[in-house]
Amino acid sequence: MQPEERQKRIETYLQQVEFASLEELADEVDASHSTIRRDLTVLEAAGILRRTHGGARLLSPRSDEFIFSARDTHQLEEKEAIGAACAGIIPASQSVIIDAGTTAYHVARHLEEKRPQIITNSLPVANLYASANLVEVVLSGGVIYPRLGVLVGPLAVETFSRMHADVAVMGAGGIAPEGITNSHGLLIEIQRAMMAAARQVIFCFDHTKFGRRSLMPLCPVEDVDVVVTDAAAPAELIEELRRRGLKVIVAPAAGEKQDSRQPQVP
Amino acid sequence: MQPEERQKRIETYLQQVEFASLEELADEVDASHSTIRRDLTVLEAAGILRRTHGGARLLSPRSDEFIFSARDTHQLEEKEAIGAACAGIIPASQSVIIDAGTTAYHVARHLEEKRPQIITNSLPVANLYASANLVEVVLSGGVIYPRLGVLVGPLAVETFSRMHADVAVMGAGGIAPEGITNSHGLLIEIQRAMMAAARQVIFCFDHTKFGRRSLMPLCPVEDVDVVVTDAAAPAELIEELRRRGLKVIVAPAAGEKQDSRQPQVP
DNA sequence: AACGATTTTGAAAGAATTTGCAAGATTTGT
DNA sequence: ACAAATCTTGCAAATTCTTTCAAAATCGTT
Prior knowledge:
266 residues, alpha/beta, Arc Repressor Mutant, subunit A, seven-stranded parallel sheet, DNA-binding
C-alpha cells in the first residue's frame, strides 16, 4: 500500500476512536511499527494528530459534534417526536428563532423542508445547515460557552433585541404553574430577548420538565403562546396551561410517523 | 487505445477508488507501467491527481481556492508551516482576530498554547475551540455563507468595527506590488473592519498567492505590518515588501522539524 | 498505397525512496 | 531507582521512480 493511502486510513481510523495505540494502528493498516511511526511523524507535522507515548491522538476531533448531542440520548425519542410536531405547526418561509439546547435543536432538524430563515445562537444548529443552501442561517454574535456550543454575552443579547422574527422556538429547564425556569443564568437574558423579538413564542418541553423548577426564573407561562410536549406529560398540568390560555400540542408517542434522518456531517 | 482515452479512464477509475496503485491502473487500462507513469505525469500537471509513491491519489475535484475544507491537501504542508510560524510571533494572552479561510484557520490551530482570546467570523475556527476551555472564542454575528462557513453581512461588519484587538491574522487571494486582493466582495468589507480593529495586522500567504491578483482590491501593502509566507515564495517580491517597510517572515520548508514545545512556566 | 517524420510505447539500468530490523537512548509506571 | 515499554537512529534490502533508448504506431505528404 502507498504511504498516502496508509496515512489517510490512519487518519480516518483515528476519527472514529480519537486515541489509538501503535499496535492498534499497525494492525489496522497492516504495516510494521517503524512504518507507522514514520507516518505518525508526517501526520503530526501536517497538524492532523499529536503523537503520544504508545500511540497518537487526533488533534481536532469531530468538530461538529458537541457534547450535548452525544449526551442527549435521554428522552431522545420524545425529543424527536416533539421536534417533528413543533416543526409541523410552523408555516413555510418564516423567520424562526431557534434557542440553544437539545430540544430546540431537534426542532431545527425537522425544519429543512420549510425553507425557513433561522436565527440562532446555537453552534450545533448553525453547523446543521452550514453547508446547505436551502436554509438561510443567521448566527448571533457572542462568546462561545464551551461545552454547550452556545453563544452568550452582550453581543448575543443585542443581536436578538434588534431582530424581528415570526416565531421563536424555545427550550428551558422546567415548567411549573409559577412559571418557566432555566438553570444557566447567562442564557436567561438572551432568551428574554429572543421571546421579545418574536411574534409567536413556542416552548418545547419533554415530559420530565413538567412540574420542575430550575435555578433561575425565566418568565410566567402567560408569555408563551404554544407549548409542545410528548405523550407522557402529566395531564393535569397540560389542562392548567390550557385554562390559562396556552395552546398545548402533545406529540404522538414513539412509533408514529417519524423521520429518522441523521444530522449530516460533510 | 488513444492516450486521451486512457487518461480519461484512469481519471474515472480514480474517482471511484480515490487511491490506486500503479499495478492496479496498469491492469485497469491494460498498459505498461511506463505508459501509466507518463499518463500520471500528464494528469498531475493538469491538476487532476497527485502522484504518490506507488500510485496516485485523486485530489479534490473542486479546486476553487475558497471552498473551505480543513482536509484540503492543497499546500497543506506550507500552510501548516505558515500557521506554526505565525503563531510563534504572537505573544501569549492576546486578543486575536482570525480571518475566515484556510490559511488563517491553520494559524488558529497553533494558537492553543498561547491562551488567546480569539475573535472570528469563521465557523471552522469557532468549532475548533468550541469545546475547549482554554481558549475564549468570540464569534461575530452574521449570515452563514454556505460553502465557506463564514459569517457575512452587516452584523459581521458591525461586530468588528466596534471591537479592539491586539492582532489580526488575515488571509487573502493574492498579494502583488499594487496591493492585496481577494475574490469575494462580501468579505472585503469585513476584512477591512478586522484590520481597522487591530493594532497589528498580520497577513499569511502561501507562495502561490504571490504576484496574484484576485477580483477585488482589499488594501495596499502599506496597511500590513507583517507578512508570513513559506520558503517557496519569490525572493524579489519579499525583498520589495521589506523595502516598503513590512516585516516578512518565511516559515521553514516542510521537513524542517521545529521544536513545538513551549517553555514551562509553573 | 508507400515513405519518412514524429509521437508513443515498452523495457532496462541507475538513482531515489521506502520499509523493516536492531541497537542504543528516553520515558513511564511501580 | 529499577524494570518494562516505547522512541529514535542508523543501516541494508526491497520497492519504486527517473532517465535513456530502440521498436512500434500514427500521421501527413506524395
